[in-house]
Amino acid sequence: MRSTTQSGAFDRGEALSLTAAVSTDRHFVLYDSECSLCTFQMKLLTWLDWCDVVRLVPITHAEAVRVAPSLGREELMEAIHCVTRDGDIHRGARCIRFVGLRMPLLIPLALLLWLPGVIWIAERIYMWVSRNRHLLSKLFGCKDACAILPARRRTEETDLHTPPNLPSPK
User: Fold this and answer.
1) Does 83 map to a domain?
2) Is 169 a domain residue?
């Protein structure tokens, strides 16, 4: 069991605390719910997740702190994060690669990200998109697209439109 620290090294003590906090049959994907582009992608992900392998949690929701207590708000704002059942944390393009291997329609993309050197390029592209996501949202009209694409309702899912720090409706 490992978790990634700021420097990229692994800290076993931190991983043990993450494992205690994360007891579920699904992986947690933490995302910025105040970003139209991010919300659109998470709504799309609900439709691609046929096997219900991930649970989407907005970083403004109280559950995000419980799931990833070692991640600060600034880190969470930089990229999506996946906290695995084992407590490992994948961020950015590595999160996409990890989640993609667990969703049938995303497997080709995930396999592409395993080719030598591709993840390095994908991380740079991801960071550029992340830094410019609010501008890109405006350019591509993600807010309007979000209104068209409904999120797939799933059991025990944190609602994509639940106000920050409020429990999701049952």
Assistant:
1) yes
2) no
- Phi and psi for 82 in degrees, rounded to 5? -120, 120
Answer whether residue 123 shows pLDDT above 90: yes
Strand order across the beta sheet in which 81-83 lies: 54-58, 27-31, 81-83, 89-91
The predicted model gives 45-51 an average pLDDT of 90
Rounded mean pLDDT of 31-48? Answer: 87
Q: What is the 3-state secondary structure (H, E, C) of the chain?
A: CCCECCCCCECHHHHHHHHHHCCCCCEEEEECCCCHHHHHHHHHHHHHCCCCCEEEEECCCHHHHHHCCCCCHHHHHHCCEEECCCCCEEECHHHHHHHHCCCHHHHHHHHHCCCCCHHHHHHHHHHHHHHCHHHHHHHHCHHHHHHHCCCCCCCCCCCCCCCCCCCCCC
Domain count, the chain: 1
- For residue 17, the one-letter residue type is S
pTM of the model: 0.72
Q: Can you tell me the mean pLDDT for 83-99?
A: 95
pLDDT at 166: 44
Residue 155 lies in a domain: no
Condensed to tens digits (0 to 9), the pLDDT of residues 126-145 reads: 999 988 887 877 776 655 55
